[in-house]
Structure formats: structure tokens, C-alpha cells
Recover the amino acids of this structure.
């Protein structure tokens, strides 16, 4: 129970009762809780046609009445208490069961809106509980029917009203929108009138309007066309996608076709089906059963109350006992099986029969598999043979002429074959005969040779015929070898002859050339001697020329430097000439100015401020001489006064020193100590005392 | 019988850049030039192979503001007398200046035959000037030439005599 929710909801309006969770749980007395419930109920029933019956003060009410009222209310709201029915709830409320009251509060406060609606509807749709005695009265029946009819009507109208209410919020917005649109319409109308006035001023406004209208229409059409284009493009893309998908499917189908065809596919599917069936019927149920069993076991284990050690021990003992029992029983069985075969004969017989039959079944299954495989293989072979037959013949059956030709060819070939075979057999017979003769001859030869050797032995020359044979053979071989030697010698001599002839030819060709070569060699040696001498000469010359060139270069460098020096000198002298010219001019001017009478010069003089340089310089000389004089006098003065001045300076420095000492002494006297006259008495010099 | 004098020689030049030597003035084309450096006046002396009576002188130059042409009548390049003087305005653009003048037969002051001609650039329009070509047209002065040759022969003979005397002295 979420008491936090309860306290929260209570603290909010419309209740405004601040109660904490702890208070709700522990402190608030039950009748207060009941009061709270009544208040909440009263709030929930607000807005109904009838004033709420819950608006009472609990203290004024009988506790039973309270219990009944609250119980009824809860029934209306379909309150499901913890497994209790309505009467029990009432009882509990009467007993002021705190937990139940809190639960009721929580339930009420959780879905306030829902309960409100329920209350409202309940007042109308409540089925009146009329006891069967009264039901027999016609009036009562009629009234009951009316009530039920009205209730139905009410249900319909309520639904309608609810629907409207949900859309009812929109009416205000709709009204607002309508108002806005009216305002806009007014604005638009005014704008239209203004524009119309303006337009009517424009000449040919009708034409313009027509054109504008056409333009607008065309633009709309353009927009529509653009939309359609887009749609078509999308459609094209979709179609392409579909086409690609179907292509893919076709490819897949074709691939399946090449690999075995429809029959193969069917066979595969059948196999798959079988496998799935097997799985579904056998495997999965088994596993499901197993897991279910496990789950059941686990559930049992969980649901049982926790075991204690002793329980474990008991269980262990039980397990041991059971195991022992099973072992004993198994032993018994074995004994029985070993000893009493008659008694269990039938059972054993049946068992054996069952085993045999099972084995047979397995064997037949295997054979069946093998046979099916063979069948498949043979069918494949047949297919392949059929293919082969189909290939070379060009058709299943050779038709007419082709067939006759084929037959005649075949006949000819078979004839040839027969002939050859007969020949072969003849040959083979001959071969056999020859072999036989050979064998006979061999045998005869052996006997002959043995006879011969006997004879020889008797006549004292053992192995005579062997030796003669070997001799003959050796002589034969010697003859062969001689022949071969002869041949090779011949060949060698031929080769030698050819080589010799070649050499002679070449010599004859080379002879004149060699003569020439000899002559030229002589010439070459002469020339070489000459060349060496000339080269020496040339080297010496080169050395001399190189040294000369170096010398000349040095000379040229020297000359160039000289040239540069001369050039700079030339320019320097030119400038010097220029300067001297100017100074000469100055002198001329001076001279002219002494002479006087030249106006140009007088103008120049005025411009520069003085007449002649002579004057200027004379003036300056005079000035400088005066200055010299004054300075000399000054010097004389200073010299004369120098000595006494120095003395005076010495005197004044002495005076200064004395005064300073006096001041210091006075300071000392003033600051501390008395007169120290001892020092003074010893000094006997003349002093100025102030 | 005025002819364009060939075998001219530059005997002196007051400035020179090794890239643009003075010989460029005598190679007969205006494509090469001699460049002067720095100061003014600048001079160069052209020596003729023989005594010529100068009839016409032409100069192709750049950025020259004032020319003075003078000649010496003696054998050595001393004591030049002015025969022509000209000032040139600055053209402003990079165009070749052509200066030429002729001496007519009736001009007695200038009619002496010469062996050395001195060209002076008194001032220039910019710091550097260039002379692209110099051409002198004149008549050879036969009389002076023969005189010179005779003098030369006589000098040579005198030398030989001296030498032979010397030899004779030494032998003895």
C-alpha cells in the first residue's frame, strides 16, 4: 500500500489535509480514517444530480450505518479487498480494521477521475434490487421495464455526450478560427477593392488580367505536372525494384532447375519434410517432456517448505534403502534369469522374438535404403545414356535414307572385319606351327650336340666343335672390324684432302695481299719515325708558345691596368682643371672688382653681400688681430696676478679649515661634556679666536 | 674620290667596360657599342692608317648631350683642333642618336689632312652613354703620304748605317 500516495493526494486540494505517512499508519484513529473515507467519497460524488450521502460527520452516525454506507460505496466502485467479499468488508469496517481502512483510502485516491465517473454513472445505472415478491405486481414490472429502458437511453446519451465533450474543447478553437477567417476575409476584400481600383487605372487592364489569369493557371498546371512527374518517377523506381526482385527469383528458379529439376526439388522437399516430421514428432516432444519434468521437479522442490538437516539425512537413508532394494531385486531377477529358464521361457522367447523382429526391421530398412540408392543411380545412368544416344545420332531414330546408308556402311565394315579376323586366325595358326617347329629343332639340336660332344670326348678332343664355332665367330667379327676400320680410314683421308685443298685456296687468295702488306709495313715504319720527330718538334714549340702566351697575357694585364690608371688619371685631371678654372674665375672677378666698372660683377657683389674677397679677408685679418691683441693683454693680466692669487687661495683654505674645527668643537661642547681645556694649553701657536 | 675609311684604330679611350670595348665602335654595325662610365667629359681618339682629308664624319650614339670633334694634323695624337661642336637634346625614349657633319671643300679652316681624330663627349643625359658606331669618310692625301714614306725609308737607311758602322767598329 502506498501511503505516500495517500498523504500526497490528501495534502492537495480539495482535501487539504496534511497527514504524513507515519501519522496515517500509526496515529490517526480509525474513526478519523472512516471520516476521511467519507470525505473522499463525498468529493467523488460531487457533480452528480443528487447531493452526496457521504457528506456526513461520522460522529453523528451509527457505526453500523457507517459500515453499511462505506461498504455499499465500495461495492459500487467494485472494490476488491484482499480476498474478502462485501459482507466481510462491512464487518471489518465495523471492527475498524486499520489496514482495511487504509487500503480503502489508497484505492479511492489512486484513480480519482475514474471513481468520479463511476459514481456519476452508478447513480443512474444502478440496477434496482426488487425482491421477487414485489415483482409479480404489474405496476412494479412496468416500472422496472421503464427503468431499464431509461437506463439504456441514458447509456446512449451518455456515450454521445462523452464523445461530444471530447471534441467539445475544439468548439472554442473552431469559433476562434472562424472569427480569424472572417477578419482575414474582410482584409482580403479590402485589398481586392484597392487593387481593383489600381488596376482599373492601368490601360488595357482587361488584357493584363486575362494574361495574369492564364499565367496563374499555367503555373498551377506546372505544379501539378511536377507532382505527376515525381509520382511517375517513383512508380518507375518501384517497378524497377520489382523487376530486379523478380529477376532474382527467376535466377534462383533457374538455378534450382539446373540442379535436379522439379523432381529433384520435390525429392529434396520430401526429405526435408520427413526430417522435420521426425523432429517434430519425436525429438521436440521428448525434449519438451524432459524440460517439463524438470520444471515440475524444481517446482516441487521450491514449493516444499525448507528442509532441515535431519530431513536431508532421512532422505539419504531412504535413498540408500531404495537403492539396496533395487539391487536385491535386480539380483533376484538375474538369478531367476540364470536358473529358471523354463518359467521365463515364454517371456524370454517373446523377448527374443521381439529382438529378432527388430533386427529384421533394421536390416530391411537398410536394404530399402540401398535399393532406393541403386534405383536412383540406375535412373541417372539411364538418363545419361539417353543423353548420349540423343547426341551423336541427331535424333532418337534414324529416318529412311540415313538409316539405309548407316546399315550399308555397317554391312561393309562387318565384312571387312570378318575377312581380317580370318586372316588373323590363319596367322595365329602359322605362328603356332612355327613355334612348334622351333621347339622340335631345338630339341634335335640339343641331342645332336650331346652326341657330338660324346664323340669328341671319345676321340680325345673335348669341346672341339665349340672351339671351332668360336673361332669362326671370332674370324667373322674380325672381318667386320676390319671393314669398319677401312671405312673410317677412308673417311679420314677424304677429310684431310678437303682441308688441304681449302688451305691452298686460301693461300692463293692471300698471297698478293701479303705482298702489299710487306711493302706498306716498310712505309709505315718510315712514317712513324718521321711522326715521332715532328711530334717532338711540335711539343717543344708548344711549350715555347705557351710560355710566350703567358708572358703576353701578363703584359696585356699590365697594359690594361695602365690604361685604367691613365683613364682615372685623365678624369682626375679633368676635375682638377675644372676646379682650377673656377678658382681662376674667382681671381678674375676679384681683379675686375678692383678695377671696377663691370655691372654684372657689381650685381653679383650685391647678391653675395660684399665687394671683393680682398676686403672680406682684410676685414677678417683685422678682426683676428684685434682679438689676438685683446687675448694677449688678458694673458698678461692673468700672468701677473697668478702668484698672489695662489697665495690668497692657500690662506683662504686655512681659514676655512680653522672655522670648521671651531664649529665641530662647539658642537661637542653643546651636546655633552665640559670644556676640555687640557688639549688647548699645549698648543702655543698664534691663533685667531672668535 | 671620297671613301669610307677602313682600318681605323682606337688609340685612346678614357673609360671602358670590358664587356663593351671601344673596338665595338669600329665594327661597322650599330648592334654593338662602347659604354662610357661615370664622369664627363669622356674622349676617344681614332687613328687613321694614313693622312686623310676628312670629308664626312658620322656618329651613332645614345644619351649623349654634347659632342666635340677635333683633329690633329701631325703624326702623333697631340694638339687637337676642334672642327665640330654640337649639343643634342634628350629624346626621352631609347632611340639612337645620329650625329653627322660634312666638311665642304671650301672650308679652308678645316681642310688640313689629319691622322688622328678626337671625339669628346662633353656631357651626357644620363650617367652612362654609349657609342654604337663611328664612320669617317675622306680622301687620302697623296703628297703627305709619299712624304711620310720617304721619311721612313730615310730613317731606316740611317739606322742601318749606324749599325754597320757599329759593326765595323766592333770588328776592329
Amino acid at each position: 500500500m502506498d501511503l505516500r500516495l495517500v498523504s500526497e493526494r490528501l495534502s492537495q486540494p480539495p482535501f487539504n489535509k496534511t497527514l504524513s505517512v507515519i501519522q496515517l499508519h500509526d496515529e490517526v484513529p480509525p474513526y478519523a480514517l472512516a471520516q476521511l473515507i467519507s470525505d473522499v467519497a463525498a468529493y467523488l460524488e460531487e457533480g452528480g444530480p443528487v447531493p452526496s450521502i457521504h457528506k456526513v460527520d461520522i460522529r453523528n452516525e451509527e457505526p453500523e450505518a457507517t459500515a453499511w454506507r462505506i461498504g455499499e460505496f465500495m461495492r459500487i466502485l467494485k472494490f476488491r479487498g484482499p480476498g474478502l467479499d462485501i459482507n466481510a468488508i462491512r464487518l471489518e469496517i465495523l471492527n475498524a480494521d486499520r489496514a482495511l481502512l487504509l487500503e480503502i483510502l489508497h484505492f479511492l485516491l489512486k484513480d480519482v477521475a475514474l471513481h468520479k465517473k463511476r459514481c456519476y454513472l452508478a447513480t443512474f445505472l444502478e440496477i434496482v434490487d426488487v425482491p421477487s415478491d414485489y415483482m409479480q405486481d404489474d405496476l412494479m414490472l412496468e416500472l422496472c421495464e421503464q427503468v431499464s429502458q431509461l437506463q439504456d437511453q441514458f447509456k446512449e446519451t451518455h456515450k454521445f455526450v462523452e464523445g461530444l465533450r471530447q471534441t467539445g474543447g475544439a468548439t472554442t478553437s473552431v469559433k476562434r478560427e472562424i472569427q480569424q477567417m472572417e477578419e482575414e476575409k474582410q482584409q482580403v476584400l479590402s485589398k481586392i477593392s484597392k487593387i481593383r481600383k489600381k488596376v482599373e487605372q492601368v490601360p488595357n487592364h482587361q488584357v493584363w488580367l486575362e494574361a495574369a489569369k492564364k499565367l496563374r493557371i499555367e503555373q498551377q498546371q506546372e505544379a501539378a505536372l511536377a507532382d505527376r512527374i515525381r509520382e511517375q518517377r517513383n512508380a518507375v523506381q518501384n517497378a524497377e525494384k520489382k523487376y530486379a526482385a523478380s529477376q532474382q527469383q527467376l535466377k534462383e528458379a533457374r538455378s534450382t532447375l539446373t540442379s535436379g529439376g522439379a523432381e529433384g526439388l520435390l525429392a529434396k522437399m520430401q526429405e526435408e519434410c520427413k526430417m522435420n516430421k521426425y523432429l517434430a514428432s519425436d525429438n521436440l516432444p521428448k525434449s519438451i517432456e524432459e524440460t517439463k519434468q524438470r520444471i515440475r521437479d524444481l517446482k516441487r522442490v521450491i514449493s516444499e517448505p525448507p528442509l532441515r538437516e535431519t530431513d536431508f539425512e532421512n532422505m539419504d537413508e531412504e535413498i540408500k534403502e531404495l537403492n539396496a532394494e533395487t539391487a536385491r531385486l535386480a539380483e533376484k531377477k538375474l538369478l531367476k534369469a540364470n536358473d529358471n529358464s523354463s518359467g521365463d521361457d515364454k517371456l524370454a522367447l517373446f523377448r527374443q522374438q521381439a529382438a529378432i523382429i527388430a533386427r529384421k526391421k533394421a536390416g530391411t530398412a537398410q536394404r530399402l535404403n540401398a535399393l532406393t540408392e541403386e534405383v536412383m543411380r540406375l535412373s541417372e545412368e539411364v538418363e545419361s545414356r539417353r543423353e548420349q544416344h540423343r547426341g551423336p545420332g541427331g535424333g532418337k531414330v534414324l529416318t529412311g535414307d540415313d538409316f539405309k546408308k548407316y546399315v550399308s556402311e555397317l554391312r561393309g565394315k562387318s565384312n571387312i572385319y570378318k575377312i581380317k579376323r580370318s586372316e588373323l586366325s590363319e596367322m595365329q595358326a602359322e605362328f603356332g606351327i612355327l613355334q612348334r617347329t622351333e621347339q622340335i629343332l631345338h630339341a634335335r639340336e640339343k641331342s645332336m650336340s650331346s652326341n657330338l660332344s660324346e664323340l669328341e670326348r671319345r676321340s680325345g678332343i673335348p669341346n672341339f666343335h665349340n672351339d671351332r664355332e668360336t673361332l669362326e665367330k671370332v674370324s667373322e667379327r674380325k672381318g667386320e672390324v676390319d671393314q669398319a676400320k677401312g671405312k673410317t680410314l677412308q673417311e679420314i683421308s677424304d677429310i684431310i684432302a678437303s682441308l688441304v685443298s681449302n688451305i691452298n685456296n686460301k693461300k692463293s687468295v692471300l698471297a698478293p695481299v701479303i705482298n702489299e702488306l710487306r711493302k706498306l709495313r716498310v712505309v709505315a715504319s718510315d712514317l712513324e719515325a718521321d711522326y715521332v720527330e715532328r711530334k717532338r718538334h711540335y711539343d717543344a714549340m708548344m711549350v715555347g708558345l705557351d710560355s710566350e702566351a703567358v708572358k703576353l697575357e701578363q703584359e696585356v694585364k699590365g697594359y690594361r691596368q695602365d690604361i685604367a690608371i691613365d683613364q682615372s688619371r685623365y678624369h682626375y685631371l679633368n676635375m682638377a682643371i675644372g676646379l682650377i678654372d673656377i678658382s681662376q674665375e674667382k681671381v678674375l672677378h676679384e681683379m675686375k672688382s678692383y678695377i671696377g666698372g663691370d655691372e654684372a660683377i657689381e650685381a653679383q657683389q650685391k647678391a653675395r653681400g660684399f665687394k671683393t674677397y680682398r676686403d672680406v679677408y682684410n676685414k677678417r685679418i683685422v678682426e683676428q688681430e684685434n682679438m689676438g691683441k685683446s687675448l694677449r693683454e688678458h694673458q698678461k693680466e692673468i700672468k701677473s696676478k697668478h702668484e698672489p692669487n695662489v697665495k690668497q687661495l692657500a690662506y683662504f683654505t686655512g681659514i676655512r679649515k680653522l672655522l670648521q674645527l671651531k664649529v665641530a668643537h662647539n658642537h661637542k661642547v653643546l651636546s655633552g661634556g665640559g670644556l676640555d681645556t687640557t688639549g688647548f694649553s699645549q698648543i702655543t701657536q698664534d691663533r685667531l679666536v672668535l | 674620290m671620297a671613301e669610307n675609311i677602313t682600318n681605323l684604330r682606337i688609340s685612346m679611350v678614357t673609360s671602358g667596360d670590358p664587356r663593351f670595348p671601344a673596338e665595338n665602335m669600329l665594327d661597322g654595325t650599330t648592334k654593338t657599342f662602347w659604354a662610357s662610365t661615370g664622369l664627363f667629359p669622356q674622349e676617344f681618339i681614332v687613328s687613321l692608317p694614313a693622312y686623310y682629308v676628312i670629308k664626312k664624319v658620322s656618329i651613332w650614339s645614345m644619351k649623349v648631350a654634347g659632342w666635340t670633334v677635333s683633329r690633329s694634323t701631325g703624326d702623333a695624337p697631340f694638339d687637337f683642333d676642334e672642327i665640330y661642336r654640337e649639343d643634342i637634346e634628350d629624346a626621352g625614349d631609347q632611340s639612337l642618336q645620329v650625329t653627322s657633319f660634312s666638311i665642304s671643300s671650301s672650308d679652308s679652316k678645316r681642310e688640313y689632312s689629319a691622322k688622328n681624330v678626337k671625339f669628346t663627349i662633353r656631357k651626357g643625359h644620363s650617367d652612362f652613354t654609349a657609342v654604337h658606331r663611328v664612320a669617317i669618310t675622306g680622301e687620302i692625301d697623296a703628297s703627305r703620304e709619299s712624304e711620310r714614306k720617304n721619311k721612313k725609308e730615310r730613317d731606316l737607311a740611317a739606322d742601318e748605317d749606324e749599325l754597320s758602322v757599329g759593326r765595323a767598329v766592333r770588328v776592329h
